[in-house]
Specification:
eight-stranded mixed β-sheet; alpha/beta; five-stranded parallel β-sheet; OB fold (Dihydrolipoamide Acetyltransferase, E2P); 445 residues; binds magnesium ion; 3 domains; binds adenosine-5'-triphosphate; Helicase, Ruva Protein, domain 3
């Protein structure tokens, strides 16, 4: 059974080709103005006109701020990096606050590397490891070399390869019938898929089929790979980096580094910039989403400010449900949304509005279908009324226990009686606060 999280019904922003938000689209209901603004941001990101800017989504609790940010991630697809974090993540006892921020910043900056590489490419027709006696004595045998034959539409070639390449072949689980390429310079092996001559073996499977390569086995090939700056940092911080693009910064790997230092990052930036100038790599500014931004403190805000102005910066999206509040880390400086005024001035603000009861009804309906909860129409109406008077989140949270109760009662669907019963089991935040005030003398002070 697949797990369902609270935002898994959101599949996108639900915007039509004219840039207009439909009443219900891609799992989202209402909140049209915010969705349309976000869709504009998507366009700007795609056309690379947004880097180094910040967007703030502000609105009352449970008005879909996080949902809309995640919808943006879905719209961007997997070619543009999206790094979500919650502001309180910076308060770790082991890592500096600014280090956490920096790491996430670099996870949100992509690099598309196009390299023309000399490769051997084709469908594998033979893999034969050749064994010899172990030169160091003992009983075992070692592999002295491996013979791999590759076939293309145009011809075929037999290669005698180093034993280290045999290890990569085993690691990538390459078999006869797979289409692979071997880079001549690094010896790294990439499996592209199974040759489509084998495609009719099964009706349904997870395999990806690729056509038999054209041209010669030995040729020059343009290889495109997407990595983030953080991937490069990690690969170069570890003594043994990856085999492919990551090793393009291989010069740095020699002096075995084990920690991502500011110095290493600077060195990587220099090389990245060089590759960009040479046209080998292209910078893909992605999105860093920081939820509950009011949890950051003044130090972090100052740092963010600086990072946003750097030449390599992602688009940063904040979300908060706070109004006028104290900026963390200051004595008592109050500011809208808990953001320092100068940073706030740099953001484009998108606001979210409370939902109408009809909209809450629609959201509940989508969620009940998504969670496979059979629920009667009148029960759903009552639940949306409850959501309207307390919060959307409260009414959404009641769906699962109500469904469970229905099972206990052997009822085929959740009815009005069951909804009334669960609302008695679990009270909402507003009623809870009210009870506390009314009965303050009965609690410990
Ligand atoms: N317009 C919408 N359409 C469909 N589902 C929604 C919509 N808005 C919110 N939801 C769902 O309602 C729940 C609460 O919304 P969400 O977590 O996005 O609120 P939020 O504004 O981030 O609240 P908070 O300020 O408390 O963080 C989530 O499960 C979310 O997926
Ligand atoms: Mg949220």
């Amino acid at each position: 059974m697949s797990r369902i999280s609270c935002h898994s019904h959101v599949k996108g922003l639900g915007i039509d080709e004219n840039g207009i938000a439909s009443e219900i689209g891609a799992g989202l209901v209402g909140q049209k103005a915010a969705r349309e603004s976000m869709s504009l941001i998507v366009d700007l990101i795609r056309s690379k006109k947004m880097a180094g800017r910040a967007v703030l989504i502000a609105g009352p609790p449970a008005t879909g701020k996080t949902a809309i940010a995640l919808a943006l991630a879905q719209e961007l697809g997997n070619k543009i990096p999206f790094c979500p974090m919650v502001a309180s993540e910076v308060y770790s006892s082991e890592v500096k606050k600014t280090e956490v921020l920096m790491e996430n910043f670099r996870k949100a900056i992509g690099l598309r590397v196009k390299e023309v590489k000399e490769v051997y490419e084709g469908e594998v027709t033979e893999i034969t490891p050749c064994e010899t006696e172990n030169p160091l004595g003992g009983y075992g045998k070692t592999i002295s070399n491996v013979i791999v034959s590759l076939r293309t539409v145009k011809g075929s070639k037999q290669l005698k390869l180093d034993p280290s390449i045999y290890e990569s072949i085993q690691r990538e689980k390459i078999e006869v019938g797979d289409v692979i390429y071997i880079e001549v310079n690094t010896g790294s092996v990439k499996r592209q898929g199974r040759s489509d001559t084998f495609a009719t073996e099964y009706d349904l499977e997870a395999e990806e089929y690729v056509p038999l390569p054209k041209g010669d086995v030995h040729k020059k090939k343009e290889v495109v790979q997407d990595v983030t700056l953080h991937d490069l940092d990690v690969a170069n911080a570890r003594p043994h980096g990856g085999q492919d693009v990551l090793s393009m910064v291989g010069q740095l790997m020699k002096n075995k580094k084990t920690e991502i230092t500011d110095k290493l990052r600077k060195e990587i930036n220099v090389i990245v910039n060089k590759y960009i100038d040479q046209g080998i790599a292209e910078l893909v500014p992605g999105v860093l989403f920081i939820d509950e931004i009011h949890m950051l403190d003044l130090e972090c805000f100052t740092y963010l400010h600086r990072a946003l102005e750097s030449s390599i910066s992602p688009i940063v999206i904040f979300a908060t449900n706070r109004g006028m509040t104290t900026v963390r880390g200051t004595d008592d400086i109050k500011s809208p949304h808990g953001l320092p005024a100068d940073l706030l001035d740099r953001t484009m603000i998108i606001k979210t509005m409370p939902y109408s009861q009809k909209e809450i009804f629609q959201i509940l309906k989508i969620r009940s279908q998504f969670e496979n909860v059979e629920i009667d129409e009148d029960a759903l109406i009552h639940l949306s009324e409850i959501g309207f008077n307390s919060t959307l989140r409260y009414s959404l949270q009641l769906l699962t226990p109500a469904n469970h109760l229905a099972k206990i009662y052997n009822s085929t669907s959740v009815d009005l009686k069951i909804i009334k019963e669960v609302t008695e089991c679990f009270i909402d935040a507003k009623s809870s606060a009210k009870t506390l005030v009314e009965n303050s003398d009965k609690f410990m002070k």
